[in-house]
Amino acid sequence: MTPHEILSQASAIQGWMEPEELLWLIDAAKGKKLIVEVGSWKGRSTKALALSCAGAVYAVDHWEGSEDERFASQNEAVRIGADLMLDIFKKNLAPEIASGKVIPIQADSEEAMPLVEKALAGRKADMVFLDGDHRYEPTKRDIENYRKFLEPGGLLCGHDYWHDHPGVVQAVNETVPGFKQGARAIWYKVE
Q: How many domains does the chain contain in total?
């Protein structure tokens, strides 16, 4: 599948990642064997990662929506509930879940730590993508917690390094020295 075919499939899923950001993820995920994603929502970025990587994506989300989001559509989770939001994710990623390319883990990112550790069964991820809670403390906690799952030379990256999300900017600045900026609001560092 070409990057533009992957982009087309991922872009069909509602979400906030721009096409150039999705293309960056598609390129970054090429050849990766194990990816951990924190914050999957309806699966836009998850689809891009899963169709690009050689292995599996562990998708961590509580599917309850985020307190820090100002978008009216984020209220959908409050209105319909986490279980129905997870059902939407599963419908959007049905082929990838059925084939084992995507493994959803329904939990808050901190509560998911032991679940991810158990699922990895001693293996390390070669990519961690963080796009969960955009407030300072939760972003900082996710960076500190999830980088532990990376193998040496693995890619630590995330979304929303942007003026609209000062908590992400501050947390990344403080905890990821030497990071680089990818497409638009993507940040990354090889650990």
A: 1
CATH of the domain at 28: 3.40.50.150
Give the structural domain span for 129: 3-190
The pTM for the full model equals 0.95
Residue 187 tokens, joined: 């940040």
Q: What are phi and psi of 164, to 5 degrees?
A: -70, -15
Segment 43-93, tens digit of pLDDT: 999 999 999 999 999 999 999 877 655 554 567 777 888 899 999 999 999
Per DSSP, what are the bridge partners of residue 56? Answer: 34
Of residues 36, 40, 44, 24, the one with CA closest to residue 118: 36
Burial (0-12, 13-18, 19+ Cβ within 10 Å), 175: middle
Nearest to 130 by CA among 110, 114, 115: 110
As a residue count, the chain comes to 191
Give the phi and the psi of residue 156 in degrees, each rounded to 5.
-100, 125
